[in-house]
Amino acid sequence: MNSFDLREFRVITLEDVDNAVRAGAKELLVQPRAILTPSAKDRVTAKGLSIKGGCCDSCSTTGGGGCVSCSGKSGGSASAPNATEWDKILNSPEAEKIKDEIVAVGKKLWMRQYVDGNGGNISYRIAENAVICTPTLTSKADLKASDMCLVDLNGKQLAGSAARTSEILLHLEIYKAVPEAKACVHCHPAHATAYAITGRVPITCVIPEFEVFVGKVALSPYETPGTQKFAETVIPFVKKHNTVLLANHGIICWADTVTHAEWYVEVTDTYCWTLMLANQLGSPITHISPEKNDDLLQLKKKLGLPDIRHDAEALKECSLCDLPEFPGGIAVMPASVSGGPSNASSAPSSTEMESIVKSVTDAVMAAFSGKS
Ligand SMILES: [Zn+2]
User: Fold this and answer.
1) What is the H or E stretch that residue 84 is in?
2) How far apart are the CA of 118 and the centre of ligand 1, in A?
3) Is residue 241 a contact partner of residue 218, using CB atoms and an 8 Å limit?
4) pLDDT given for residue 228 in this prediction
5) 119 alpha carbon to ligand 1 midpoint, in Å?
6) Average pLDDT over the chain, rounded to whole?
7) Cα–ligand 1 centroid distance for 229 (angstroms)
8) What percent of the chain has pLDDT over 70?
């Protein structure tokens, strides 16, 4: 067995694994409780390398550091990575790509007027207990990769010269509650926030893209921004919703990538805007039939996107379109729609609706197959 010794490193990056691969390694020797970044872990699996050592018994057999069974247990102990090692994570080639993506997404948020002043914040979980995030008091139009911070899941800053955003606690509660969440985007887009300040969530079963990418939006109760109490308001919702409206505040979306989390913000805000415009037309909004909407939910399930309606009981309720999610979290139908069924003459035919569903399916599959 051709072993490659990486025991000098607490944190093992993709670059370290590639060096070992170039040297013809079949086995990596790592120190106890070593942390592998997600890309390093993927490369180990792709190359079929075995790992000797690792952070715990299960890591040494499955070939990765930063496992769930041992993460957090060593916090503050002598075996936690030191400042230089956290710097290494924040400056790894993998982190550089993420930081560039955060800078690009920050510009998109600002150009779409979803943030004002120093508002909004963006984060990405790069390792089990390490999250890259935007700094405080910086316009999202002016972000630089070198401004980014690294924090642990308790919000303690591990690396980066600028101070972390005060809103990171909100993102961290999502990472703790939802293992699939890798990225969060929080901002204050005007149309979605208009719903949030009137205690409303948008109705569903109207536009296919919204159903697939977002669907039922939750509304969390108001708390003072930046506090732990505020951060915890989203916990009851984030497992089954990738998008939460924050009462009297704004929106937060989580996803597998920073770019996708920003997409969900765009999809939600544009959808809220469209509903507002439609309501001004004075005609009832036409709904997608429950059967056709079920096609969209099936597609969504295949894509691994969360939706409270994946639960069979909730799906039954969905045919009533928009029951309250919890007392106080009201989903109010605009007056022009509450009268009931759609205007038959303006409803698309089933053939038209089938072609809409097909084109959305194709677009979504293309977007997801192009992501990696
Ligand atoms: Zn905010």
Assistant:
1) helix 83-90
2) 9
3) yes
4) 95
5) 6
6) 82
7) 14
8) 79
CA–centroid distance, residue 120 to ligand 1 (Å): 5
pLDDT tens digit sequence for 136-161: 999 999 999 999 999 999 999 999 99
Q: Do residues 39 and 15 lie in contact, with contact meaning Cβ atoms separated by under 8 Å?
A: no
Nearest to 230 by CA among 172, 162, 308, 164: 172
Question: pLDDT tens digits for 79-91?
Answer: 567 778 899 999 9
What are 252-301's pLDDT values in tens digits?
999 999 999 999 999 999 999 999 999 999 889 989 888 888 888 888 88
Residue 299, Cβ neighbours under 10 Å: how many? 18
Asked if pLDDT for residue 78 goes beyond 60, the answer is: no
Classify 59 as helix, strand or coil: helix
Q: Residue 126 is encoded by which pair of tokens?
A: 């790069």
Distance of CA 81 from the midpoint of ligand 1 (Å): 31
Between the CA of 251 and the centroid of ligand 1 the distance, in Å, is 8
**Gap from CA of 249 to ligand 1 centroid (Å):** 6
CB contact at 8 A, 28 and 3: yes
Distance 225 CA to ligand 1 centre (A): 7
Using pLDDT thresholds of 50, 70 and 90, give the confidence band for residue 355: confident
* Alpha carbon of 202 to ligand 1 centroid (Å): 20
**Rounded to the nearest 5 degrees, what angle is found at the Cα of 310, between the Cα atoms of 239 and 128?**
30
Cα(209) to ligand 1 centroid in Å equals 25
Taking 3-state DSSP, the helix, strand and coil percentages for the chain, each rounded to the nearest 5, stand at 40, 15, 45
Domain boundaries, the chain: 3-72
